[in-house]
Prior knowledge:
The protein is an alpha+beta fold. The chain has helices at about 25-35, 45-60, 85-95, 95-105, 185, 250-255, 255-260, 265-270, 290; strands spanning about 40, 75-80, 110-120, 145-150, 165, 205, 215, 220-225, 235-240. About 40% of the residues are buried.
Amino acid sequence: MTTMLSPPPEPPTVAETSRWLEGRGFASWRQEFDRRGYLIFERVLSPDVVADIRTALAPHLARDLTGRNDFEGFRTNRVYALLAKSPLFAELAIHPLALAFAEAELGQSCLLSAMLAINLHPGESVQPWHFDDGGAKVPRPRPPLGISAFWAIDDTTEQNGATEIIPGSHLWDDHRIAAAASPADFAGKTPQPGRDSGDRADAVKLVMPSGSLAITKGTLWHRGGANRSDRPRMIITPQYCAGWVRQLENMCLAVPREVAASLPERARELIGYSIHPPFMGHVDGVHPRRLLHG
């Protein structure tokens, strides 16, 4: 007798995504995601929400702290630990559209690995090619261990540094491509002279209007583009990882305990006040949320 296996249940957040799926089922979008390695959904955030995000970021961008190396970008502002800076960013981290794809790929126990604003100023050069779950030294090809979301706060265009991706590269093996990130890209305090631009005929720029969302698999090769315009280009990128993978940002220290206690429950779970089955993440044998609430 043949046993019919039921498909895995959809994440609870899927039910909240229909308004952005353009009449298609979530499964259809996932098939496209599996094939291409990326998706774009235009104008997900309203102009009012985008304006509120700009206001929340303004005092941090006013410090004009620029990158420390070629990877971060010497003409780029990066604002880290966003969940400690405004409750707006917690709402963005748990946005149902991005979270539905993260949970479908990584499971309900997934974590928020990093969340930062990236503001490219005019004259910024291209970033080295990389893939976001490369810190996990697991041989490729393999399923992704992370999902990255890119929220366009400004329009991202051909000229202002739209993120560049290589469609289908999430399926590649461990071959390193030309102009891929190397230890030197993180160590140097000045731009590397004569660095290979790494331009490729098969690369695509994630051009999209303000308020849009792009989602990529953690194994997809990509890079920040060069800003050849006369204005900055800003995005916010929440990055999710499997519940057993170490987060890029130490969220439990980046977000003070009293701030974490005030976050929505799903946001608290994403930063680490949660358990990956059966008991990864416990504190002295108990669930971390019990300690958070005393």
